[in-house]
TrEMBL record:
Keywords: Transferase. The keyword Transferase applies. GO terms for molecular function: holo-[acyl-carrier-protein] synthase activity; magnesium ion binding. InterPro entries: 4-PPantetheinyl_Trfase_dom (IPR008278), 4-PPantetheinyl_Trfase_dom_sf (IPR037143). Pfam families: ACPS (PF01648). Residues 2-81 form the 4'-phosphopantetheinyl transferase domain. This is 4'-phosphopantetheinyl transferase superfamily protein.
Amino acid sequence: MIGNDLVDLRQAATESNWQRKGYLGKIYTPEEQELILNAAEPSVMVWLLWTMKEAGYKVLNRITAIRSYSPQSFICCGLITNGSQATAVVCHDERRIYIKSEISSQMIHSTATLNKQDLEELTLSYMDNSADYRADFNRSSRGYFLTKTSSGLPLIIHGPTGRKLIASVSHHGKYAAIVYSDSLLSAG
């Protein structure tokens, strides 16, 4: 299973006041709040943890089909940051979801899988966020076509073989990201 989330940092700065009273406590555990408040760039840490939690949620939603999101129940553990990259594990109940993140001055993007080694097998396409991002992807991706399952989940079809691949789509502000893997076939 795959999940991904991204935040356009410029748009987040204008849309969300994470410093308002009670905001952090609704979304982040006390340990995560400490990471945020002690970070060199607290706003970057807010959105890094947010994208990790959201990407983890998308993996779990794909498994369970339950669309209930309680951010504090997705706990970021073992966070390691190294310049423009970060890794962590998001724990939810008994599940461990592995996260890899890219951090730039424009956006933060996190991908999530159930198996750590699958993080290295992902194909990632960044594009401009537009109403037609799906058509843009289909034009620019040789032989791969982005569509949706009957339940509305993203799906990639490999044109030459007809194979159905699990996919995850995220968009915010100026950016869109589509993540898939040839090794992670869809059950549908």
